[in-house]
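Reviewer 2 asked us to include a model.

Predict the structure of this chain.
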Amino acid sequence: MSTSVRLLPVLKCLGGPGMSCKSPQNYSWTEKALDKGYQVLFLDQRGKMDNILSLQSAEQVNPTGTGLSSTVTEQTIARQGGPLAQATYLRHFRADSIALKDYEKVRPGGLAPLAVQQPDPVYQKLYDMVAVRNRSYYNKYPLDIQRVKNIIHFLQTEKVTLPSCGGIDIVHEQEVVLRLASDLDYHGYLTRPSLAEFESLQSFDDSPLYALIHEMIYLQGWSADRIMKDHPAFMNVSTTNSVPIFFTGEMIYPSMFRDYVELRNLATTADILAQMTDWPNLYDTERLANNEVPVYASIYMDDMYVAYDFAQDSAKKIKNCKYFITNAMYHNAIGAPGKSEEVFKQLFALRDDVMD
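Predicted model (structure tokens):
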């Protein structure tokens, strides 16, 4: 007696390095994918204690926790020995081990820069795009130019310590200091609840792996720190002129390993990782050029984190890759309320369209 098994296509969602996925019901696109007949597989990457493997289909809607993740914290890394032993251990948490070896039967998506083998060109473009977004922000909220200067001045003249005893680097953590401006507007000082909220927005104490290996995908580290000197607008922290203070975004700096409590004992380890040059390439461009698996992708013209020309170049290097281009969405569109539905609509349109 034979038993037939209904095989459904699988859609996979990965958390970032050291990050976890949310529960399936917290993604607005889950229902859309299920309606299209997909199973949805949510996988936390290594380094996160609450590693969850969630498998959903129209017949199975309950997530299943595995609890098998190799948790990465300052304490667990310290068990490996000295900084060199720690760095050697952390090499196994890069994407070639996480996404390729662990999940080789479940092909990941995304259009990373295939032709870029070191990070400096990526960060040159990233700073340019972040500068554009800064100008757009200040054009929309011109009063915040002075509000940002007020909070920076306060941080420059007062000793501010976070509830965890961490510090605030006013040059490299400008992306979140605006959250504190309301306290100065109303109280003239920073309240503990606001400092606690400020601290909760920063993930590196809970997910140190992201800070440790973020730039390793490009085979070299501390690029954001090196390239900043070529973009002096981001080094301006003057509070006595009318020049706007720019926010940074998705950059990792050595100074963070002084300010974040969980990162302080990992500073030497991070530096060893940043100096390593014998990383294997993540992508086999020859194999991608002969790819037979249909690929459907979105490319965002104004993506702050993945340069448009890099993404388009990658798409052209992957055989059987169809993509749509839009200037109406940003990098986070797949998870943004009201945007993910449009992303899926366009991707499924590419899949279902018969061209020529």
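Strands lie at 10-14, 39-43, 52-56, 64-65, 295-300, 321-326. Residues 7 and 177 are 49 Å apart (CA to CA). We have added this to the supplementary material.
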